[in-house]
Amino acid sequence: MPEKTEKPATETTTAAAEDRPRRRQARGERRITQLLEAAATVFATTGYTAASTNAIAREAGVSPGTLYQFFPNKEAIAIELGGRLMHEMRQSYDEVLSPIDPAVTPIEEAITGTVDRFIEFNCLHPAFFVLMHGPDIPGRIAEEHDALHTTLVTRVETLLAPFVPDAPAPAVTRTAQMCVGIYKAGLELILAHEGAEREAYIQELKDVLLRYLRPLAEGVVY
Amino acid sequence: MPEKTEKPATETTTAAAEDRPRRRQARGERRITQLLEAAATVFATTGYTAASTNAIAREAGVSPGTLYQFFPNKEAIAIELGGRLMHEMRQSYDEVLSPIDPAVTPIEEAITGTVDRFIEFNCLHPAFFVLMHGPDIPGRIAEEHDALHTTLVTRVETLLAPFVPDAPAPAVTRTAQMCVGIYKAGLELILAHEGAEREAYIQELKDVLLRYLRPLAEGVVY
DNA sequence: CCAGAATGCGAGCGACCACTCGCGTTTGTC
DNA sequence: GACAAACGCGAGTGGTCGCTCGCATTCTGG
Prior knowledge:
Pfam families (chains A, B): TetR_C_22, TetR_N
Protein name (chains A, B): TetR family transcriptional regulator
Number of domains of chain A: 2
Region (Disordered) (chains A, B): 1-28
Largest interface: A-B, 31 and 31 residues
Shape of chain A: elongated
Oligomer: homodimer
DNA-binding region (chains A, B): 52-71
CATH class of the largest domain in chain A: Mainly Alpha
Organism (chains A, B): Streptomyces purpurascens
CATH topology of the largest domain in chain A: Tetracycline Repressor, domain 2
């Protein structure tokens, strides 16, 4: 991996926020989103490491040089793409994961709503799954991935907490971790199928989570 | 990928079964297992694609040329390693997954026994998980992976079948798929922890599967 | 003990890939 | 309309990696 330019941290003088206050033109912004879309499809089909920057540029219909006009390196593409998808996801998921009162919303509804929302998002943006769950991903993105994962786990914990008021914290964490893992596993199956079969797997995932969590909500301890 | 030598099929004269009836010496066999062990550790730490053949040779303390004395290419190393692990696994799992009678063995025991056996094997051979669940894996190994996966699913299906005699086949398949997926997810969590925490996650995985499957065994349909 | 095969070496080859550079084109600004 | 900056190109560069080749060393059968 040629990493020659060590980015000598040219934070030289001015109090300017960015090191290079590159003024983007409208054309440039368009190219960026275009390149990001191309990257999304290439990442989704081949994975991150196997995706070549040349392939992304080709997919976008531009030259490799043009690509590097807007992104300093391959990782930055994934970072930016991941960031934008994360942002878009938060919009969907802040409404769903936060405001839940076990007295009002039964656990069945909480699970169904959350799962539906996440499934929809991931079906719409298959690259997100690749970037966030792909194991061949280098440093910086892995950090974002971890951040998302822990955020997700914490959210599930707070979602779970009111249902199990008298459970020790580590146990709740484990349950939340399992939930996220189960969700990931289910998502993979769901993305691998289409139509009625996909719907059936969605239902199956809900069943798993429901049967797993309902005993907790009912205070049953086996 | 440089694939120059097209193996000109030097089936020159004799009706020998193999193209090269290479007589291995004891030293060679030792080198092979040594290289395979080295490959296992390198694969387990860096994944398949990121693992360089030179790194494997270095880990084994031999030169790259020596490595290619015993394996035609990088893929063959993974194939052979995967094959040996598969073989070793079958020994553990044929005893567990086959002979189960729901009248004699309750579902709790079936789950516990199966999970324990598989967990143990995967903890012992972390490279197996990487080779079988890594997404950066080229053609041939992916085939073996798929073969293992479907075998696993089929086994779980037959394991499940006696508990749900009147369920439609596709539904059983879906349930089996979910079980395998859940197991994979749980395994990842288990491998990521140690000691008491690991044990707790093992228990958690068993709980998930148990709560998921018990309603089926009891004929309860939500 | 001695041919010949198996084993061992490591510099090097070719292909690929992330990334660059010089130069031409378009766009915004005064 | 003129100047600068942003945009666009694509051949080229350095580096890594899978793999080879010629040659030295060790083993094995007769």
